[in-house]
Amino acid sequence: MRSAPAEAFIWFLFSVPCLFCAHPxxxxxxxxxxxxxxxxxxxxxxxxxxxxxTPIEAAISAACAKSKAVSPRTIHIPPGSYSISHTINISCxxxxxxxxxxxxxxxxxxSSGDVFFxxxxxxxxxxxxxxxxxxxxxxxxxxxxxxxxxxxxxVGGNIDHISVAGQYIGIEIESSLSLYFNDVNPGGNNKSxxxxxxxxxxxxxxxxxxxxxxxVNTNSRAQQRGTYxxxxxxxxxxxxxxxxxxxxxxxxxxxxxxxxYPGDVAVGLTFSNGGFDEAQYCIHSTRAPGxxxxxxxxxxxxxxxxxxxxxxxxxxxxxxxxxxAIGSAFFLNGRHGLNLSxxxxxxxxxSIFSANNRENHGGDHVMLSGTVTDVNxxxxxxxRSDGRNPVDYDVVLADRAxxxxxxxxxxxGATKGDIDSHGSGQYIALSAVYSGRSTTLGADRLAxxxxxxxxxxxxxxxxxxxxxxxxxxxxxxxxxxIASPAGTDAGDGFQxxxxxxxxxxxxxxxxAISSATPVTTRYxxxxxx
Length: 529
Fold this sequence. Notes:
Blueprint: H1 4-15, H2 26-32, E1 36-38, H3 53-64, E2 73-76, E3 80-84, E4 88-90, E5 95-98, E6 105-109, E7 116-119, E8 127-128, E9 130-138, E10 147-152, E11 154-165, E12 169-174, E13 177-188, E14 196-201, E15 213-222, E16 230-234, E17 240-248, E18 255-257, E19 266-267, E20 269-277, E21 283-285, E22 295-306, E23 311-315, E24 320-324, E25 329-333, E26 336-340, E27 344-347, E28 352-355, E29 366-368, E30 373-376, E31 381-382, E32 393-397, E33 402-410, E34 417-421, E35 427-433, E36 447-451, E37 465-471, E38 481-485, E39 494-502, E40 505-512, E41 523-528
Parallel strand pairs: 1-2, 2-5, 3-6, 4-7, 5-9, 6-9, 7-10, 8-11, 9-11, 10-12, 11-13, 12-14, 13-15, 14-16, 15-17, 16-18, 17-20, 18-21, 19-22, 20-22, 21-23, 22-24, 22-25, 23-26, 24-27, 25-28, 26-29, 27-30, 28-31, 29-32, 30-33, 32-34, 33-35
Antiparallel strand pairs: 36-41, 37-40, 38-41, 39-40
């Protein structure tokens, strides 16, 4: 809590003009200065003792009443901790909500429902260009509804440097398009069933498809395993792109693709240079009753999927076609690295598939069954785990799995053999390539790994980080890295980030969303070679 002198000093900083700065002309003042409104002038309380939702709405209403001659109109939320008692609605174009930094401006919701709901008004079927940047939303009470930021029927928006912790839904994209998210990190903990970090869907059976939305540089991860149900839930889209990401630590799938309404489509999914980890499934695609929409044109480039409870990549939807995942790793997953029972046109060559049979599922590295057809695994590697729970086969072909190509692969030494075919389909005979080196995890460097020294144990102020470096031979700054606790989790209110900071070195940062002390622990890192 700030003292009165501190509050006065902050007011001084924001209210006294700079004596040494060039000042705008009167014409410029009329055009520019009225476009930025400070929520403190409308009664917002940065100490959090009084509700600030209504004052922020008042600032938004005042901004929306102004001319759009200079766009966007901006609402500024200064440093502080603001109590939010109800949803803040936005229904005008060309508006920006800006804080002073993720660790500096914090909104604390005290009720269920969205924190920000951006939606079209009765005058227009679409809203245009609503932006957010530089603040965080934080709660710990497991709400059963509501998103941190919810877009409905919106075209265009830049969302930068935002953290959302503990909401039922982190970010909701509903029938909206051309949204660009950079350094937006939904996370924290929410134990409510159905909670999700990202949700992409239509507004109804006749709603528009969410389209051409982009997410980069995101760490979307629950803080405690067994909290969020989904990392990303996609129910309808004809263009969703995510790059430089880390998604996982959820009790359900890290990425779930399942329709909500008949006719929902899921086309044009692109994921590159990132990782899914420590979830029920890394990627789970399934058919819902009555599905009729198209599925396909999915691309996974340089994706590291590891340590799922069941399968790395699972699909049972016969409509799914044209999936490319060349040069990716489905690594150390509990039952199967890859499990396909339907669909066609899977180009998965030069990838890594590994199951570690952690729960004694009787797993195999790759399971192809049902009606799946046209699967190419050429040039891939099947990697043995530590041997405590050995898998049965590298590849199992069952039922009517057909047109399967498994050539020029690196053999893993599964317990019962390389390939088991007991179905009615056809496959191109296995041609295993032995490189003369061990294929035990870690020895062949198919995935690069290391462990940091202990990180944590000292108090961090909001927005600051503790860091450690793991030595990972052959790691290069162009590679993607992820980190997970080797023991106890850091605790609530922290974001974990990993990146290759120099050749052979991976930096792991434990960053505080609000002031707290992270539990001291080491972090395991994985780097996709």
